[in-house]
Write a structure and sequence with these properties.
- The complex is a heterodimer of chains A (364) and B (534).
- Chain A is mainly α and 364 residues long.
- Chain A has one domain: Up-down Bundle (Amino acid/polyamine transporter I).
- Chain A has helices at residues 9-20, 28-36, 40-64, 70-78, 80-112, 119-133, 138-159, 168-171, 181-195, 201-204, 214-245, 251-258, 270-299, 305-321, 326-363.
- In chain A, helix 3 runs parallel beside helix 15.
- The longest helix of chain A has 38 residues, at 326-363.
- Chain B has 534 residues and is an alpha+beta fold.
- Chain B has three domains: 1-22 and 153-290, no CATH class; 31-147, no CATH class; 306-473, no CATH class.
- Chain B is built from 18 helices and twelve strands.
- Chain B has a five-stranded antiparallel sheet, with helices on both faces. Chain B has a five-stranded antiparallel sheet with strand order 6-7-9-10-8, with helices on both faces. Chain B has a two-stranded antiparallel sheet with strand order 11-12.
- Chain B is globular and about 105 Å long.
- The chains are: A mainly alpha (364), B alpha+beta (534).
- Chain A binds chain B through residues 8, 11, 109, 113-114, 117, 121-122, 125-126, 129, 132-134, 137, 139-140, 142-144, 146-147, 264-268, 271, 274-275, 278-279, 282, and chain B through 336-337, 339-344, 448-451, 453-455, 458-459, 461-463, 465-466, 473, 475, 478-481.
- Chain A: It holds the Pfam family Spore_permease.
């Protein structure tokens, strides 16, 4: 596809960071702590490191096939039929992920900010917000992510005010109580599943100006986003401790409710944190939507992004309404996360290997 | 007139002919007749009914019958009498060949400056309409065209919409030539280009594109010319017409072109590598490309000390944000999230509200509406009445509304703050945009609370991030983030920090400053002189 847009690798880092900080931020501490107890911090660090495999694979793929997005790569290396089958799989899974996340968002909002507003309304308005943002211009996509990034980090500053309630014994022992390696890895896997959602980078490959710095800067972006989430885990665990944390449905929201900022400008800041979290949710959903819309456009070789995104709205809306209650959302969520993780990690690595094999075959 | 580029659009000619005046079309490419009477008759047929059409017969060199034709209302009659007819009559003929007479007159008889010869009838018709006098000579296939245009013009005074405490007081007026002279005496360099074209098939308005050749990016200049060239319209009456037709996204409510009446602002922008568009008949010049940060900056910022101007700029931004969000945040706090208000203020914030029959959103909306009506009314009112009206409107009506239990006192305060905030923004059109968006935010806030505000702000910000003005990102230097350019954004760094021109418009020549003079605080040269004498 011909284009005049370009983005720098630093912008890619910003996209990765702001995509990572998103919906799971609210609920992740409880999930990980429920699995591994006090070892949550260590497990998250391991998860963070594991997550970088996907990033390295995607950026390496980008270095090799500078002209192709992941959609194009699939078609190039796997042939028209298998490639397009995988592409459809990517798009459908992106839509499912987006649907589930927007539902989670609406549920948190209903319990934290707008108890009387029906969740259907928050769901549809969020999807429309993503549709309105537009997909025509890749640099605009990068600008949006980069612009919101500072706002996403504001809650971290606010959470810092709760440091006086932090008890160090809540965080110890670092290795948890009598954990098996399997349990520990399950916690690490949860963290990895939550933060490995920057697949959108694979759709941006043709637009990246400097592929050489992409791995380095991408890792920086990954760590910035990952550390922000890690920070939330540390704070919630440190303040509440394992026992209490397991009872709180959205620990970060609960934590933000007990924070008092000096000066009494506002009596409670949970609404402010929720607003910045809305920004975070938007950037994450926008990334997923971007993959789905631009991927579909590339499969059909058109540039009618507005049409495609409008057609997708009802589908995502229906997906968002499938789970009956909040427990089901997370059941679905974890199952899809496992499946999607295969796409995120195995697909780029597989493509790299296939690329190498095909090259060798061609050489012979 | 020197058209600076050929019409590039291939199908343009067709459409333009459609829009063009039929009389001119009829005579297109028709040579003038050799007979004086035929020519006079032709023009008479067209202009017969016009009050100010006049022609005068005389004998050229006292032997050849001729006529001068012009519009009384447009020309300087003194010039025609003294500098043209008198000389043409009194001179004695030397040249014998009739075809060479016009050239002979230009070279030997007239000392008048703007004189050319024309052959085409349609051009003659247009020339007469633009304040030129045309001399027909019997038996000659060329006519003389003399520029004797004289128009009434107002004096150069300070523009009302862009007042400044410190800085030059002159402003543009309606005449293009004077506006250009205001620019040229500030930029006495050979690199300063003023290229001219015509826009509007019927109004034939002169439009000038100004730039500094070795600073402005040639691609930008080319793009500006092309966009102006692509305009197909019967007439333009103000530079606002051009603005709306060359901006990148015509659907956007945000101003994407700077308009200003201050020559200094134009020169400052030209020196940064931007392109200015001036138009005959409009006192406001356009400058492209525009970034959003320019709408809260003024030229005065560079005249004052950098600390002061940075301080003022920060307050302007606060005012801008106030005018956009203040009333909607008030609505959400009162009607959706009263838990956010600190306990000590709850009473103060809600005490006036117990007798109010309406929901907050309705109350705020009503007040905002009446404020808009008041503002519009005071713009239309004659100046003498305007002051009285605003006193009646603000003091009497506001006070009465509170006492009648119609609105709560704190609502009046909030509305007052947000309205005044919108007036603190230096750019009128940017302030208007925000005022309009404020209503959308109020509706969103009234229905969805903080989520509504967040969504509304995101829609606005996303839209602003998607805007480009002549290829330059609208929110530059914030997105894409450019740390160096941030020195001249929310704050204005001292001049020795601003050695480079703004990078986002890709100027050819990037440096604008040499080394700063040294710091003089430790060095007392008076003492030094004394010591030397000893």
């Amino acid at each position: 596809m011909k284009h005049t847009d370009s983005i720098s690798s630093i912008q890619v880092a910003g996209i990765i960071a702001s995509t990572i900080i998103g919906v799971p931020l609210m609920v992740l501490p409880r999930f990980i702590v429920a699995e591994v107890g006090e070892a949550a911090i260590l497990a998250s660090v391991v998860g963070l490191i594991l997550s970088s495999i996907s990033l390295i694979a995607i950026t390496e793929l980008g270095k090799k096939y500078k002209e192709y997005t992941i959609i194009g790569c699939n078609r190039l290396l796997l042939g028209k039929y298998i490639g397009n089958l995988l592409n459809v799989l990517i798009i459908v899974s992106m839509m499912i992920v987006m649907g589930l996340e927007v539902r989670q968002f609406a549920e948190v909002l209903a319990s934290g900010l707008l108890p009387n507003t029906p969740i259907e309304f928050s769901i549809i308005i969020m999807i429309f917000l993503c549709t309105l943002a537009g997909f025509r211009n890749v640099s605009t996509f990068a600008y949006i992510h980069f612009f919101y990034l500072p706002f996403l980090l504001i809650p971290m500053v606010f959470l810092l005010f709760s440091i006086k309630d932090l008890e160090t014994y809540h965080l110890l022992p670092v290795f948890g109580h009598e954990l098996s390696l399997f349990q520990f890895m399950k916690g690490a896997f949860l963290m990895m599943a939550a933060i490995t959602n920057y697949f959108v980078v694979a759709m941006l490959i043709p637009y990246i100006k400097d592929h050489e710095n992409c791995v380095k800067n991408g890792i920086w972006g990954l760590f910035l986003g990952g550390l922000a989430i890690l920070f939330c885990i540390v704070m919630t665990l440190g303040v509440f401790g394992v026992q209490e944390l397991e009872l709180l449905y959205w620990p970060v929201l609960s934590l933000s409710r007990i924070i008092q900022i000096p000066g009494e400008v506002l009596s409670r800041i949970d609404a402010i944190i929720l607003i910045t979290w809305i920004f975070a949710v938007f950037t994450t959903l926008f990334s997923h939507y971007f993959v789905a819309v631009r991927g579909t456009a590339e499969i059909f070789r058109t540039d009618k992004f507005n049409l495609i995104s409008t057609i997708m709205v009802p589908f995502i809306y229906v997906i968002a309404l499938i789970p009956d209650n909040i427990y089901e959302i997370y059941d679905y969520g974890i199952n899809t996360a496992f499946f999607v993780l295969i796409i995120y990690i195995a697909l780029p690595i597989g493509l790299l290997i296939i690329g190498r094999i095909r090259k060798r075959v061609r050489v012979q | 007139m020197s058209p600076f580029f050929k019409k590039s659009n291939h199908n343009t000619d067709q459409t333009l002919r459609y829009l063009e005046s039929k009389i001119v079309n009829e005579h297109k490419n028709k040579p003038i007749s050799g007979s004086l009477e035929d020519n006079i008759q032709l023009l008479k047929n067209i202009f017969e009914k016009d009050l100010d059409y006049s022609f005068r017969r005389f004998e050229l060199f006292n032997q050849i019958p001729s006529a001068i034709i012009y519009f009384q209302s447009l020309v300087d009659k003194e010039k025609i009498n003294q500098d043209i007819i008198k000389l043409l009559q009194e001179h004695r003929m030397v040249e014998e060949n009739k075809d060479k007479i016009p050239q002979y007159i230009i070279e030997n008889v007239l000392y008048y400056n703007d004189t050319t010869t024309v052959k085409d009838m349609s051009k003659i018709i247009c020339a007469i309409m633009q304040g030129k006098a045309v001399v027909f000579i019997d038996g000659c296939l060329e006519a003389l065209e003399l520029d004797v245009l004289q128009l009434e013009k107002r004096s150069i005074d300070e523009p009302d919409t862009e007042r400044a405490v410190r800085g030059p007081r002159d402003g543009f007026i309606e005449q293009l030539s004077i506006n250009i002279s205001l620019l040229r005496y500030r930029l006495p360099i050979p690199e300063f280009r003023v290229e001219e074209t015509e826009v509007g098939v019927r109004t034939k308005t002169k439009v000038a594109v100004c730039y500094i050749e070795d600073i402005a990016n040639p691609a930008l200049v080319e793009e500006v010319k092309q966009r102006i060239d692509a305009i197909e319209i019967d007439g333009i009456l103000d530079s606002g017409y051009i603005e709306q037709m060359i901006e990148d996204n015509p659907k956007s409510p945000f101003p994407q072109v700077i308009n200003t009446e201050r020559p200094t602002k134009v020169v400052g922008n030209l020196l940064e590598g931007r392109v200015a568009i001036l138009m005959n008949g409009s006192p406001s010049a356009l400058v492209v490309p525009a970034t959003f940060s320019q709408f809260y900056q003024t030229t005065e910022d560079y005249n004052e000390h950098w600390v002061i101007s940075s301080f003022v700029r920060i307050f302007r931004i606060i005012a801008l944000v106030f005018s956009l969000t203040f009333s909607s945040i008030y609505i959400t706090f009162i009607s959706f999230h009263p838990e956010l208000i600190p306990a000590k203020y709850v009473v103060a914030a809600t005490s006036g509200r117990h007798s109010i029959p309406f929901p907050v959103m309705f109350e705020v909306l009503m007040m905002e509406l009446s404020m808009e009506v008041l503002r519009e009314a005071s713009v239309r009112m004659p100046q003498q009445v305007g002051g009285a009206l605003s006193i009646v409107g603000v003091l009497v009506v506001g006070q009465a509304a509170v006492q009648a239990g119609f609105v709560s006192p704190i609502t009046v305060v909030i509305i007052g703050m947000s309205t005044i905030g919108s007036f603190a923004v230096p750019s009128y059109n940017a302030a208007n945009t925000f005022r309009m968006l404020r209503f959308a935010l109020i509706l969103l806030a009234g229905t969805l609370g903080l989520l509504g505000i967040a969504i509304g702000l995101m829609v606005v910000v996303n839209h602003m991030l998607s805007l480009r003005s002549f290829g330059v990102p609208y929110i530059a230097p914030y997105a894409p983030l450019n740390i160096k350019a941030l020195k001249d954004s929310i704050v204005r760094a001292p001049f020795y920090q601003l050695k480079k021109r703004p990078q986002n418009i890709y100027p050819q020549d990037q440096t604008r400053m040499g080394e700063m003079v040294e710091d003089h605080t430790d060095y007392n040269f008076l003492e030094e002189r004394k010591r030397e004498k000893r």
